[in-house]
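Predict the 3D structure for this chain.
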Amino acid sequence: MLRRVLPAALLAAAALALPACMTEQGMLQVAATRPVQLDLREVDLSAASIRRGVTGSDTRVTSVLFLPTGESPRLENAVEDALLDNGGDVMVRARVRAIDWWFLIGVSTLEVRGDVVDLLEVDDVVERLEVE
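Done. Predicted structure below.
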């Protein structure tokens, strides 16, 4: 009897131990963490380096034993994570979602998923167009 009840009890305890919530926060058409030149009227974007489906995140402990730590994840850090990992300058069509879970400690994550564009390569194309 104990062999049948123990796995079910452990599964129920695990389900109660990690309550979580995931919410879509919205979509950003363009996201960057530093100033960039976006005048691309004469540029063939098909020549740009684009990495699709890139994900970046920022995670922070937000509470310990129900006491807030004053920390919260920052969108800027999540975008920078995606850009640095993929060698890009701008993130486009970025979907933002928040993931929170808690049990004695609270942890929050902001996650961005979108396409990363390397504008330096686009700048090289512009310079070549200007020389011609």
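Residues 123-132 have pLDDT under 50 and may be disordered.
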